[in-house]
Write a structure and sequence with these properties.
elongated, transmembrane helix, 238 residues, membrane, two-stranded antiparallel sheet, cell membrane
Length: 238
């Protein structure tokens, strides 16, 4: 049997090179995330890349290309759970999607490295870094463009605040006014605000509206004696 200080086999050396490639490329990706103070920074990106490389390399060592293929499938699904851990919902805002996507790409880099495709791993790394850096000015430029609500696909809701005992009447009135303005209602919901006050919320089927139309509907609703307050909101799609 070979001793503890025997010469490493070519397979072991190949595994070591794959891990080094994954470590180096994961460091490049993670350094950019760490610089921007993201939730998942340098160490996380490196560990994801190295872990993916190790698992894919192990699959290849055990059962060849078939084992690597199965391992890649498990890596893809497994990294999804890890990515979900960095996504946070704060009210109507969702944070961490870009970081989760970056971790997913780090796993892809590691998988390429573990499958003995270092050049492809470098290509993916360059693409990830370009997406996180070079595209930032374009994102900022697009964000500064005023939103054309008539051309933006979104979810529109009209809400009225009324006494709980007239919630049914308010719902009928809300639906009637919106349909008169040619904005059919997809559904309504009553949300309690207290013991005696509720919000009646109508969701429109339209994904684009004229803001002046909804302003007119809201103004008309607020003239009704049973309506304490009326407003409308828009939530842009993903």
């Amino acid at each position: 049997m070979p001793g503890p200080f025997s010469i490493p086999t070519p397979e072991a050396l190949n595994s070591g090179i794959s891990l080094l490639v994954a470590f180096g490329l994961g460091t490049l990706i993670g350094a950019e995330r760490q610089y921007r103070q993201r939730t998942a920074g340098l160490r996380t990106a490196v560990l994801v890349a190295v872990g993916a490389s190790a698992f894919v390399d192990l699959g290849m060592r055990l059962t060849g290309g078939e084992g690597a293929t199965r391992t890649v499938a498990y890596v893809i699904s497994g990294i999804g759970f890890l990515g979900a851990g960095v996504i946070m919902k704060e009210g109507m805002n969702v944070r961490g999607l870009n970081t989760a996507a970056t971790l997913w790409c780090s796993a892809a880099v590691g998988a390429f490295a573990g499958a003995d495709l270092p050049l492809e791993a470098c290509f993916v790394t360059v693409a990830v870094l370009a997406g996180n850096t070079l595209l930032r000015p374009l994102v900022n430029l697009i964000d500064r463009i005023p939103i054309d609500e008539a051309a933006t696909e979104a979810t529109y809701e009209v809400q009225v605040t009324v006494s709980a005992d007239v919630a049914g009447l308010a719902r009928d009135l809300l639906v009637e006014r919106l349909e008169e303005a040619d904005y059919p209602v997809a559904g309504t919901e009553v949300e309690e605000r207290g013991e005696e006050v509720v919000d009646v919320v109508a969701t429109l089927t339209a994904t684009a509206v004229q803001s002046k139309d909804l302003d007119a509907v809201v103004a008309d609703l607020e003239k009704r004696p049973e309506v304490r307050h009326a407003t409308w909101t828009v939530q842009t799609g993903d």
